[in-house]
Automatic annotation (TrEMBL):
<dbReference type="Pfam" id="PF07478">
    <property type="entry name" value="Dala_Dala_lig_C"/>
</dbReference>
<dbReference type="Pfam" id="PF01820">
    <property type="entry name" value="Dala_Dala_lig_N"/>
</dbReference>
<dbReference type="InterPro" id="IPR011127">
    <property type="entry name" value="Dala_Dala_lig_N"/>
</dbReference>
<dbReference type="InterPro" id="IPR016185">
    <property type="entry name" value="PreATP-grasp_dom_sf"/>
</dbReference>
<dbReference type="InterPro" id="IPR013815">
    <property type="entry name" value="ATP_grasp_subdomain_1"/>
</dbReference>
<dbReference type="InterPro" id="IPR011095">
    <property type="entry name" value="Dala_Dala_lig_C"/>
</dbReference>
<keyword id="KW-0963">Cytoplasm</keyword>
<keyword id="KW-0547">Nucleotide-binding</keyword>
<dbReference type="InterPro" id="IPR011761">
    <property type="entry name" value="ATP-grasp"/>
</dbReference>
<dbReference type="GO" id="GO:0008716">
    <property type="term" value="F:D-alanine-D-alanine ligase activity"/>
</dbReference>
<comment type="similarity">
    <text>Belongs to the D-alanine--D-alanine ligase family.</text>
</comment>
<keyword id="KW-0961">Cell wall biogenesis/degradation</keyword>
<keyword id="KW-0067">ATP-binding</keyword>
<keyword id="KW-0573">Peptidoglycan synthesis</keyword>
<protein>
    <recommendedName>
        <fullName>D-alanine--D-alanine ligase</fullName>
        <ecNumber>6.3.2.4</ecNumber>
    </recommendedName>
</protein>
<comment type="function">
    <text>Cell wall formation.</text>
</comment>
<comment type="pathway">
    <text>Cell wall biogenesis; peptidoglycan biosynthesis.</text>
</comment>
Length: 320
């Protein structure tokens, strides 16, 4: 399909989530890339315009560069299904499950895939939650994070018992569900996946070396101190095993288009553990999917065009 046959394209960016700032950066990069490839692309911010205007203004497909709630969680995907406008990335169900880290873990565990031990704490339980029981179940250090946020927003690495109440309270400001997770100490890696079903393929693994091991919001987007190693430097059999694991994790959730899965490798056993999946990954200058794609010989512009070509609907076959 030539770029002219892609029609009028909306690059959805900004939105109302806590990741708005990052989304605007991602969207601008995608918009510039698509225009440079000759695509009739336009910026569209759902926080400032009603999504029904996409149909009214004659958009033929959407590139979703939104992150977090109301963009990555299935709600926007459902609206686009109703409007009949094909969009990039996963469909309604996969987006909804993947946005919820607890639900994602439940699916992975049901499929026999490795993920760190966890406990779910509800916001209304904060006054009665037992720090001692959480620590007994998960140990220290422990990761505490909102169940439905991204970009490391609201995440705390709890090293001492006295830090746990404040970490829970911080996560509760972002979400009613708080995920407390066993902290795996070792190598942190991430691996993008492109495609759908049996055709899904992993891109090269990236190993992340953050200052003091703290890959937080600041170190993700606004500093140059974090190292991203691709080639990742892991033994070939380890890298191949991680790629196979993330493709399986992507497939069992029913994802399509693209995604990026974060993995921790236990430093002693070398067992990889699935952390979470992003179904609308960042496309900023610091983002990892473009970096991995570049290592595979795919330019940023070509990646954007490839993702746009794959835009689809959950029920397009039914529509005929």
């Amino acid at each position: 399909m030539s770029t002219s046959k892609l029609g009028k394209v909306a690059v959805l960016m900004g939105g109302r989530s806590a990741e708005r700032e990052v989304s605007l950066m991602s969207g601008q990069g995608v918009l510039n890339a698509l225009r440079s490839m000759g695509v009739d692309a336009h910026a569209f911010d759902p926080a400032e315009r009603d999504v029904s205007e996409l149909q009214r203004d004659g958009f033929d497909r959407c590139f979703i560069a939104l992150h977090g709630r109301y963009g990555e969680d299935g709600t926007l995907q459902g609206a686009l299904e109703l409007l009949g406008i094909p969009y990039t990335g996963s469909g309604v169900m996969a987006s909804s499950i993947a946005m919820d880290k607890t639900m994602t873990k439940r699916v992975w565990l049901a499929e026999g895939l490795p993920t760190p031990r966890y406990e779910l704490v509800r916001r209304e339980q904060l006054s009665s939650v037992s720090s001692e029981k959480l620590i007994a179940a998960l140990g220290l250090p422990m990761i505490v994070k909102p169940a439905r946020e991204g970009s490391s927003i609201g995440v705390t690495k709890v090293v001492r018992a006295e830090e746990l109440p404040a970490a829970l309270a911080q996560a509760a400001q972002c979400d009613a569900d708080i995920l407390c997770e066993q902290c795996i100490v070792g190598d942190e890696v991430t691996c993008p996946v492109l495609g759908a079903g049996d055709a899904a393929k992993a891109l090269p693994v990236i190993r992340i070396v953050a200052p003091e091991g703290n890959y937080d919001y600041q170190n993700k987007y606004f500093t140059d101190d974090t190292q991203y190693l691709v080639p990742c430097g892991l033994p070939a059999d380890e890298e191949a095993a991680i790629e196979a694991l993330v493709v399986k994790a992507y497939q069992v959730l029913g994802c399509r288009g693209w995604g990026r899965i974060d993995v921790m490798i236990d430093g002693q056993t070398r067992q990889p553990y699935l952390l979470e999946i992003n179904t609308s990954p960042g496309m900023t200058g610091h983002s990892l999917v473009p970096m991995s794609a570049r290592a595979a010989g795919i330019s940023y512009e070509a990646l954007c065009e490839q993702l746009l070509h794959a835009a689809s609907l959950d029920h397009q076959e039914v529509r005929g």
